[in-house]
Amino acid sequence: MKLNLGCGSNKLEGYVNVDKYDTYKPDIVHDLEKFPYPFKDNSVSHILLSHVLEHLGQNPDVFNSIIKELYRICSNKALIDIRVPHPRHDDFLSDPTHVRPITLMTLHLYDKNQNLRWEKERAANTPLALIHNVNFVIKKVENRLDNKYITLIENGTVKKEELNDLVLKYNNVVKEMKIIWEVIK
Question: Which of 17, 87, 109, 184 is at a distance of 20 to 30 A from 116, taking alpha carbons?
């Protein structure tokens, strides 16, 4: 089964489209901050969370429950396609319904091997994968640049090699992050 969680008006063929609101007539109306989700254990092979995760779990306990619920319903090797506004882009900063930035480090907190490395190093990172008995691995990351930077690269004003420095120094360079997260059981 493939899920499109928080689908809004973006209902997809071949997916079970789920949303909190009945406005766009999803296949299933369900609030993703209410548990359990209406799916069996290990029944999902793919989840799309397109501009959804940053709206969920303002309370850390609720956010961790969402992660545990995703883990419960996913099968081994299931892929979760996460698309979020970059936390340093105005698209994230300006929306009052965005309750939490989603970063690569946020997602690494749910990686058991990473947690074990941090424990060995006595790092201060919270080992959420070990605490909540979940395991997700980041498989792929794509950054979609803001149009201004696409133009600057196309006309040669900015070199691709300079991009990482710009992303670290400035807001509004990366507009959106696409992260593929794999479930490991």
Answer: 87
Residue 54, amino acid: E
Helix (H), strand (E) at residue 75 = strand 74-85
Query: Mean of the pLDDT values across residues 141-154?
Result: 94
Query: What residues form DSSP beta bridges with 140?
Result: 180
Tokens of 31: 């609030």
**Kind of pairing between the strands at 74-85 and 44-50:** parallel
Which residue is associated with the tokens 């992260």? 179
**175 and 89 in contact (C-beta within 8 Å)?**
yes
Residue type for 168, please? L
Render pLDDT for 101-113 as a digit per residue (tens, 0 to 9): 999 999 999 999 9
Tell me how far apart the terminal alpha carbons of the chain are, to the nearest angstrom.
17
Contact 176, 142 (CB under 8 A): no
Q: Residue 144 forms beta bridges with which residues?
A: 176
**Rounded (10°) CA dihedral 6, 27, 64, 170:** -10
> Structurally, how many domains does the chain consist of?
1
User: Which residue is listed with tokens 């340093």?
Assistant: 88
pTM of the model: 0.94
